[in-house]
Amino acid sequence: MRLVLISNVFPPLRISGAVQLRDLSREFVRQGHAVTVLLPSSDQPQPWRLEEMEGVRVIRLKAPRTRDIGHVRRVMGELAMPFVMLRQLRKSPWAQETWDGVVWYSPPIFHGFLANALKKSSRCKGYLILRDIFPEWAVDLGLMGRGLAYRFFDAVARYQYSVADVIGVQSPGNQTYFERWRQQPARRLEVLPNWLAPAAQARCSIRLSQTSLKGRKVLVYAGNMGAAQGMDILLDLAAQFLNRKEVGFLFVGRGTDVQRLQDMARERLLDNVLFHDEIHPDEIPDLYAQCSAGLVALDPRHKSHNIPGKFLTYMQSGLPVLANVNAGNDLAQMIRGERVGQVCESNRVDELLMLTDALLAQLDSDKDLSRRCRGLFERDFAVEKTVRQIVSALGSPGG
Question: So where are the chain's domains?
Answer without folding.
Answer: 2-195+382-395, 208-379
